[in-house]
Amino acid sequence: MTLKVLSVASEAAPLVKTGGLADVAGALPAALAAQGVDVTTFLPGYPAVLARLGKAKAVHKWGALLGSPARLLAGKLGEHPLLVLDAPALFGREGGPYTDASGKDWDDNWRRFAAFARAAADIGAGAVKGRSFDLVHAHDWQAGMVPAYLRLAPLEGGRPVPSVITIHNMAFQGYFPGDIFPQLGLPPSAWTVDGVESYGGVGFLKAGMQLADAITTVSPTYAGEIRSVEFGMGLEGLVLARSNRVHGILNGIDTAEWSPAIDPHLAARYTGGKLAARAKNKRAVEREFGLERDDGPLFVVVSRLTWQKGMDVLAEVLDHLVGIGGRLALLGSGDAEIEAAFHAAAVRHPGRIGVRIGYDEPLAHALQGGGDAILIPSRFEPCGLTQLYGLAYGCVPIVSRTGGLADTVIDANPAALAAGVATGIQINAVNAGALAMGISRAVELYHRPAEWKRLQKSGMKADFSWGASGAAYAALYRQLIEEQG
Ligand code: ADP
Questions:
Q1: For the chain, what is the mean pLDDT?
Q2: Residue 288 buriedness (CB in 10 A; 0-12 / 13-18 / 19+)
Q3: Which of 134, 141, 188, 478 gives 20 to 30 Å between its CA and that of 181?
Q4: How far is the centre of ligand 1, averaged over its atoms, from the C-alpha of 153 (Å)?
Q5: pLDDT tens digits, residue range 27-53?
Q6: CA distances (Å), 112 to each of 119, 174, 328, 351, 416, in order?
């Protein structure tokens, strides 16, 4: 039997993207179609999304969705059905999905994403004629209130369906002051620790984790890590209490977007059997970043420049990286202090370090296709996608041993090298000493070309496409629907 699932996300590639969530939400419909699951994606109507939607049909209306009039527009995300919440008072503004143009969170984010979740719950429960769903899949805090509305509020469609919430990053919880509670349209009984209350406020992610039928994280290791105080960030007790409902399902990569053999953003396309063609891509990166040419390794970074990503630690070891013959091309944006540290390093090491602050999808592909190794020293990493792209592109990942990084990269220790299974380099701790050592190991290995090539090839052979993960989500959906009877 084909299942119908509503996937509720605040971003989805290629329409709107600030990070990995968009890649995953964008890839799920195709991944699940292969498993007999029809996914409809539901997105907020940001200006960029409405512009891409063009002339779309309104399939439903709300007179007042948490106070704002709203329409539901139907379109397509690739070949798959898309629904968009057109609520100009909430989403019709310039800036990012969550912040204004200066990077400050919108003051009314609670209302924007509560309204979005309320609409999702109505749709999931069957409010839209001709569109019924068997299950709702909510992503991150922005959709965290969906399970709460499904369970606790009177719904327009009236048919409760099971829900799943996926945590893409526990660090973003959507925590708001308690005085918003009366405006959420939930019954007073929802104001309890078994409902949406969290440490005296309203926790959107917490509400989702409390009230969804299943919680998933985007890697098995992260599913274990969030049971601890360090990674649970205040919600570890809830994770432990619901541990029989927590599943770790690794993200896959969208091979239609991320395959070096067909990638239109590369100067030269290649396969594992034609690695020499990467040289042309390396030259292109060197030119783009104003780097000298030599026969040493070119390290790359494509990342948010934040504490989570360990980018402050990387900034500390750049003199070492250059000192042992490395060069760095970095693309990213984030904390002003970290950006400044990279700029300063580029000034200290002209021709050896090139920095591009900003967000640039084609350049992200070019770096994976031309870099020798990608640096990802995250302090925590729910799954991480850039190491998976690195593996697929023969851009050897150098990662910390945490979350999805630990699950997907096999360290080039002597035994793994001898067995031919190594795919990258893991560092044991996120500090300058450990990272410097990891970079040194990479430089040494790079100068043993046969071994380096083997490392690249093993990574390119590893299968991180959506097959297994799509099957795991589909099995979970079926189990929850059966449980509901
Ligand atoms: P997170 O979602 O925590 O930022 P992930 O590794 O899961 O980290 O996903 C990051 C995604 O965003 C990848 O697709 C990566 O290529 C992309 N990305 C990150 N920074 C940039 C940037 N400055 N320009 C282009 N793409 C970027």
A1: 97
A2: middle
A3: 134
A4: 36
A5: 999 999 999 999 999 999 999 999 999
A6: 11, 12, 40, 46, 49
What ligand 1 atom has the least distance to the C-alpha of 332?
A: 23
User: What stretch of H or E contains 137?
Assistant: strand 135-139
409 and 397 in contact (C-beta within 8 Å)?
A: yes
Confidence band for 159, pLDDT divided at 50, 70 and 90:
confident
Among 304, 342, 399, 400, the mutation site with the greatest number of ligand 1 atoms within 8 A of its Cβ is 304
* pLDDT beyond 90 at 158: no
For the segment 195-222, the average pLDDT, to the nearest whole number, is: 98
Which ligand 1 atom is the nearest neighbour of the CA of 368? 16
Residue 236 burial (10 A CB sphere; 0-12, 13-18, 19+): middle
Can you list the domains of the chain with their CATH numbers?
3-252+466-484 (3.40.50.2000), 275-461 (3.40.50.2000)
- For ligand 1, atom 20, the nearest C-alpha belongs to 303
pLDDT digits (tens, 9 = 90+) for 331-368: 999 999 999 999 999 999 999 999 999 999 999 999 99
Q: Is the CB of 23 under 6 A from ligand 1?
A: yes
Tell whether the model's pLDDT for residue 485 goes beyond 80: no
In this structure, which amino acid lies at residue 301?
V
Q: What crossing angle do the helices spanning 449-461 and 386-393 adopt, rounded to 10°?
A: 120
Q: What is the per-residue DSSP string for 242-301?
A: TGGGEEE----B-TTTS-TTT-TTSSS---GGGGGGHHHHHHHHHHHHTPPP-SS-EEEE
pLDDT at position 157 over 90: no
Label residue 242 by pLDDT band (50, 70, 90): very high
Q: Give the Cα separation of 87 and 93 in Å (integer).
A: 10
The protein residue with its alpha carbon nearest to ligand 1, atom 26, reads 361
* Cβ contact 174:107 at 8 Å: no
Q: How far apart are CA 190 and CA 207, in angstroms?
A: 10
Query: Which pLDDT score, from 0 to 100, does residue 50 have?
Result: 97
Is the model's pLDDT at 455 over the cut of 90? yes
Q: Cα separation of 242 and 251, whole Å?
A: 22
Q: Please indicate whether residue 385, judged by its CB atom, sits closer than 6 Å to ligand 1.
A: yes
